[in-house]
Predict the 3D structure of the following.
Amino acid sequence: MTDCLLPSKTWRWMAWACLLLLLLVTVLSAFLRHRAEGLGCQPWPGCLAAGTAASGVVEALARGAHRVAATAVLGLAIGLLVLALRARPSLRREAGLSALLLLMALLLAWLGVHTTGSRAPAVALGNLLGGFLMVSIAARLLAPPDRRGLGPVALGVALLLVAQAAGGALVSASHAGLACDALRGCADQAAAAGWPWAALKPWVGAGLLPGDGALLQLLHRAGAWVTAPALAALGLLALRRGRRAEGAALLALLAAVLALGLVLGSSGLPLAAVLLHNLGSALLLAAVVRLV
């Protein structure tokens, strides 16, 4: 069957290069997004009013590297699709995933061109989820073509993780990272503000009221209590089903992301920890998607 054919070494090298470049793009995108929001200035986010958001040589270099890497990903996606279609018989699975990767790259390029300078949470949400999905697709491309997944269970956990990542993006884009530091405190602040559900609208813009940010934090923190056990259960299931590498990677990434989340909540959002948390979340979704 064509679905069980193995891609050529050239194709696999290109797929690996695409995955590594996507991880670089993910980190650089998060860096530029958070630096544009002034993360790192003191006291954040109040210092944004004084116009202290960082801009300089480092940001210019990061922006240039981001454009080069993103362009390379686009070229690799085209190359992967062409090689998969030219194979005889064609690699239908690889061609489909490569086409999806190319489509996502074009959509993100369009978003970048038409939303330059926008601070709307919807833009950050689109960039983050789009980047995460591209990393997941690239990781899926490198999975053995004849390996059976864990089906609806893994798909359900993947969707749960996407929702959790979306919540994190809203927290970040709305400057709500320091709105509250515990579930009880977040709930109290959100209740005092009258449970402002309008804060969930990603097009309302950044700079919400304290109660709005507390609600976003509450939902993200509560979501972690649901998502983390589901991820742990999926990792253990993968180990039992013989998917030892993916199961072990999933559990290790989960532990790292949870630890980084605790650091973020207790140390004032250091930029390095924010970037690592973002990267770990992308890899975690990729690990889950490989099990679907």
DSSP finds nine helices and no strands in the chain. The CA atoms of residues 174 and 208 lie 6 Å apart.
